[in-house]
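Hypothesis: this fold can be encoded by more than one sequence.
Test: take the structure tokens below, design a sequence, compare later.
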């Protein structure tokens, strides 16, 4: 299961957001979602495409893909030197697949800001500096070894050294590792380094309740220069909504003009940054389920996500794009219109495919 880490300066609204997300998780899905530890929760990723597929095929229950969410405290000035909970913080953030950065954009004079001002871009820069320094330290450590090994002129060693040199220069310019491709001749180098700033980042501007759900323009511009994305939430409002009965919360959301719940907006957006492909399986009277696999997964390998027997005895996959199926109104109609195809073991699964595997048990 993939992991998302929520980070931010103290009082940015991380815990409020984490609470809202984990409570909404319990509303969205008909099966229990647990808070594993006080700051770790497994949450579903609501997917309206799967809802529609389930309706057309009379499948139930609807089982979304899940992701682990971690509220990671300890990002303060000096964290990269181990200040505050710095070391623990860095160890935790290295383990996640995507990072949600909460920056304060709400005013609330009763909530102190560590630097006594509200400035989302300055906060983003402070956070990035800490993470860039943490990466830079690692790069320098590895670079020493890589330089020694590259003296052998062995191809992978040279490629790794050159890549680390380029990365060092990039981080020193204040740019994230994201965007620098891993070296072709040393494909393991990037994984071994585990740079924090190479991970996908979603910036969440925590805005005043009642204001438009849009991140401040200067933050959007800043984030675009980093190759990342920004959205807005009001964490306090979402935490309050999550306290209400589901029906009441739903009505409130409608009144507020929120078309999606906070889980879809935040977790859905962060999940999409992981570049996974989601396919669906669904059968009348049985469950409809979403499965996330890496882009480039072939049909036979995808079958393993459903059952290992299906991979072993794989014969073929029947495939229809979710929107084609919904437009056709039934599998039969999709087949008649030639929207449902039979594909072999090496078919590259696409995002939004509805798959049925034929296999010999
Ligand atoms: P953390 O330190 O980042 O985990 O921040 P918390 O979620 O604990 O929030 C710190 C304080 O800010 C709490 O008193 C929250 O109620 C308040 N807060 C968080 N989000 C908002 C918001 O969107 N608007 C307002 N007015 N207050 C907020």
């Amino acid at each position: 299961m993939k992991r998302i880490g929520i980070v931010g300066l103290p009082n940015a609204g991380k815990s409020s957001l984490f609470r809202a997300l984990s409570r909404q998780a319990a509303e969205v899905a008909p099966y229990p979602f647990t808070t594993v530890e006080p700051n770790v929760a497994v949450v579903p990723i609501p997917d309206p495409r799967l809802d529609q597929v389930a309706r057309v095929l009379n499948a139930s229950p609807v089982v979304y893909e899940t992701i682990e969410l971690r509220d990671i405290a300890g990002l303060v000035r000096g964290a990269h030197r181990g200040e505050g909970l710095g070391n623990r913080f860095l160890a935790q953030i290295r383990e996640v697949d995507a990072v949600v950065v909460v920056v304060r954009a709400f005013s609330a004079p009763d909530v102190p800001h560590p630097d006594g001002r509200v400035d989302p871009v300055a906060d983003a820069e402070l956070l990035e500096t800490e993470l860039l320094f943490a990466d830079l330290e690692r790069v320098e450590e590895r670079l020493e070894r890589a330089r020694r090994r590259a003296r052998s002129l062995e191809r992978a060693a040279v490629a790794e050294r050159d890549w680390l040199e380029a990365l060092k220069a990039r981080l020193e310019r204040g740019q994230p590792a994201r965007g620098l491709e891993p070296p072709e001749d040393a494909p393991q180098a990037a994984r071994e380094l585990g740079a924090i700033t190479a991970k996908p980042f979603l910036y969440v501007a925590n805005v005043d309740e009642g204001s438009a759900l849009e991140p401040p323009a200067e933050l959007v511009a800043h984030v675009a220069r980093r190759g990342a994305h920004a959205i807005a939430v009001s964490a306090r409002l979402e935490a309050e909504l999550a306290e209400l009965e589901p029906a009441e919360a739903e009505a409130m959301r409608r009144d507020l003009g929120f078309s999606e719940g906070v889980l879809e907006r935040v977790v859905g957006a962060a999940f999409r940054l992981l570049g996974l492909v989601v396919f669906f399986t669904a059968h009348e009277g049985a469950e409809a389920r979403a499965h996330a696999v890496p882009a480039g997964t072939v049909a036979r390998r995808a079958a393993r996500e459903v059952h290992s027997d299906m991979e072993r005895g794989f014969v073929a996959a029947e495939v229809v794009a979710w929107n084609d199926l919904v437009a056709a109104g039934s599998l039969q109609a999709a087949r008649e219109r030639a929207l449902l195809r039979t594909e072999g073991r090496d078919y590259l699964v696409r995002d939004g495919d509805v798959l049925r595997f034929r296999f010999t048990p």
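The two ends are 27 Å apart (CA to CA). Residues 8, 10-16, 106, 108, 111, 206, 208-209, 234-236 surround guanosine-5'-diphosphate (CB under 6 Å).
Hypothesis status: open.
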